[in-house]
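## retry 2 of 3
previous attempt timed out at serialization; input unchanged, resubmitting
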Amino acid sequence: MESENKRIVKNTLMLYFRQILILLTSLYTVRIVLQALGAEDYGIYNVVAGTVTMFGFLTNSLAGASQRFFSFELGQGNCESLQKIFSLMLAIYILLAITILFFAETVGLWFVKNKLTIPATRINAAVWVYQASIFSFIISILTTPYMAAIIARENMKIYAYASVIEAILKFLVALSLSFMPDKLIAYGFLLLIITFLNTAVYRIYCGKHYKECHFVFYWDKEKFKEIVSYSCWNLFGSSISIIKNQIMNILLNIFFNPVVNAARSISVQVNNAVNSFAGNFTTAMRPQIIKQYAAGKNDKAIQLVFYGCKYTFFLMYIFALPLILEMNYILKLWLSKPPEMAVIFTRLALIDVVIASVSYQIMTLAQATGKIKLYQSVVGGILLLNLPVSYIVLKLGASAYSVMIVAIVISIVATIIRLLILRLLVSFSIKKFLRDCILPIFSVVLIASVIPCFLHYIMEENFFRLCIVFISAIFLTLFSIITFGLSHGERKVIFINIKNKILGNNK
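## retry succeeded, writing output
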């Protein structure tokens, strides 16, 4: 177990290195792009690109299946079947790409031209951006099996380096927009080129280092049915995620205007930046949870889930608390003139993702079992309520940000249901989960939030308050985690590891 934990820590640190560099470049990139395009064109790009991204739930479902099957075979020590699984997966991805291209050029194109709220003068540009987004997406589809192989083998170095290079290239693209005649069209096609280069890196690396990443014609009816069955239910779950994230963008466009889309887009950027830190930890843990379960070590897998749920939330809250409090001033510093309603959208989005973070490792263990029909159908059905409830709320005349409140409430309900289902799948103890995970989480939230909130409300908004709130929030959150969030055994292990590291370095 110790070697597995060390591997998780090592991979997490590598992914954190990746994320910090990406965060620094990406946040400034958004500012440059927003200033170059303007709020209207930026909103158009996000809603049009979001229309293409709706097809991404197909890829996400198979990506999850790829990682699950790769990690499961590695956990059982069955390396010989990896190439067969890879070949089956790649064949499925090729068929998927053809299917998506068909629907994107028919139904999707019709939707962009006839249903989205886009100024008549920018329709042509929107169509060109849509085409660039389609082909970017098609190219990235065929990359997914290679990325899944890298993650399953827990080789995060190449994953980190490729992502950093991609972020730097996007930054350079943003700088070059001022020299382009039609900045919106240029932005779409330059991102297409970056996607192509990123794909080439993954495919070349995997081809050289992993013998299973070479396509051979292979057919196994039973394995194909197993993969498709698993993927179809994953598909349902992923499609619901799109409803929550992308179709919500379309609803806001229909009821309001592209400026509101720009505001929500800013919230998504900040949300993704914070969520990525927890996502990196989840990515590092996911292969180990699946491998432990595949090896028949259910208790170890469940224990990893307990740790993962609690630590994922803590990682999120360290960043989320000061950001939520100081979001108004942060957006002014970052964007100079943030779109209207960007502050409230961002605050609510952060609350939503922090709540959802508790479920990340729960989902991983459910997927490890391969028995995801009940899980995806019930949880997916609950999350599906986001669309009709949000539509009704907006139809009744509620503000645009009301859709985020709806999402928060449904996220809480979905988390409770996930626990009940996991208990049925793997004899998961909800009582122990509440005691060992939720209670420490509540303790940390209550204790860490009091002083930063007090300072926020009594001090005048300026850079000094920003620094004070950030320092106090981070310090008190870390103190609360160590004191109230960790058990005695967890604190002992951490201090011993730190001590050994220091002594080792001194030698």
